[in-house]
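We emphasize that the prediction below concerns an isolated chain of 67 residues; any contacts that depend on oligomerization or on bound cofactors are therefore not represented. The input was used exactly as deposited, without trimming of termini.
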Amino acid sequence: MSGQLYYDDNFGVWDDMDDPDMVEFYEQVQRTNVWKICERCDRKVKIQPHYSICDSCASAIERGLDY
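Result of the prediction step, given as a token string:
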């Protein structure tokens, strides 16, 4: 990963950011994000319109955590 941190509530920390195509995709995702309340943790997050939960909650679900 390059020196700049790339993070969002859709995917968490972004890898491969030395690749110009990945940076372009990241920027596209950021332009299309909307503010929503995560249905699992009730935090206000900036995610894709078709998502209902943030990356933190999605990762917790994938690890089998329930809170």
